[in-house]
Amino acid sequence: MTGALSGIRVLDLSRVLAGPWASQTLADLGAEVIKIERPGAGDDTRGWGPPFAKDEAGNDTTEAAYYLTANRGKKSLTVDITKPEGQEIVCNLAAQSDVVLENFKVGGLAKYGLDYTSLAKINPKLVYCSITGFGQDGPYKDRPGYDFMIQGMGGLMSITGAPDEAPGGQPMKVGVAVADIFTGLYATIGILSALRHRDATGEGQHIDLALLDVQTAVLANQAMNYLTTGVAPGRLGNAHPNIVPYEAFPSADGYLILAVGNDSQFKSFCEVAGLNDLPADTRYATNRSRVANRETLVPMIRRAMVTKTTDEWIAVLEKANVPCGPINTLDRVFDNPQVQHRGMIRYLDHPVAGKVPTVANPIKFSKTPISGETAAPMLGQHSDEILRKVADLSDEQIEKLRSAGII
Prior knowledge:
The chain is 37% helix and 15% strand. It contains 16 helices and 13 strands.
């Protein structure tokens, strides 16, 4: 493989989404990622369907779309880590790896001798990343953590959704598992930083990542709104707590996002919308005053917005340099000429499905472009290859392990 991380080997003991998202990102960047899976079962997400990838005859395969989401570019090795022989294989691979990634419960791998303390004795340069719901210490450390509950516990749902007094108002989760995905990205950042430290000093380290920590960290301006005032922000639907007008407005045939980020843009918008008196009104002249007077301003904007279709508004607002956009369904997202031009849809060879679609990594390198991606592997697809080339086992040893159910 080629890429910025070519030559880096990652031993991935994680499953579901947060850990696999991190290891997929590392694979995209050129690392060799060996995905360790349970014989006969594999990653839980293999069965999280429908939908499933189709074979060339149009029939469902065993590969769920969810699994394909986060396992591109990896090699699958099935190993029963509860057996001493399986533990020996993983230790062998860890001794020859740069990174171990896992999301078992706190202390769950220690009984197998696969925790950081044990593997660091074998490979002191190892970067070992643990992902859990609540971290390696603290009163909640032994609790399981899943994205949905973390979005709730971490405050995101308290600021997402329409207010209670609005029709259908209630706390809402985000439509994708953002706590998991953000944790995967923070894990990637942490691993790359630890590899830089390893290269400079020769020492590895343990990275402790918690979904709740990450969800708290990405509250961003909403967290600071609370910390600077002591007042917990509430739900505003599609409105923004610090910018007005910055929300979705009904048009004549749908909805339009209006994202006015400064006073100059507000003046331009008012000129286009026939609201020429508003920029000179002290109640609306600055963003600060517009936030304070949103209850009177927003209804006036709504009355203006329903006079044109979404496409009509986009045409005139873009010409006036006012940020705006439609609310696309996913079919329109992937039909969008900009998305297509940027190569965000790719089709990868798959041993059963022929070709499977994937959403490309968005990083565009000038010197080390992402290339050579492979589809998410079938269960155990690379077991023999890895055991021969990396673990240096003979065909006879491999067959003996397979007969014993170890691989």
